[in-house]
Amino acid sequence: MSDFLAALGLLLVIEGVIYACFPGMLRRMLEMMDQLPEQKVRYAGLAAAVAGITIVWLVRHQAAGL
Question: 2-27 burial by CB neighbour count: b if 16+ within 10 A, else e?
Fold first, then answer.
């Protein structure tokens, strides 16, 4: 559970830095995303989730082997 909370905290830090440093870029990106079909947004979200799971698995697998 502590790993999950640490990951959630890191996510919030990264998101906060993006909002603070690049608000204009973020607004433009959201406007562009609004123009995309829902299915493309859904596939992009699924791809990001799979990439994240893969990275976590690889890091955990590598750490367990050491």
Answer: eeeeeeeeeeeeeeeeeeeeeeeeee
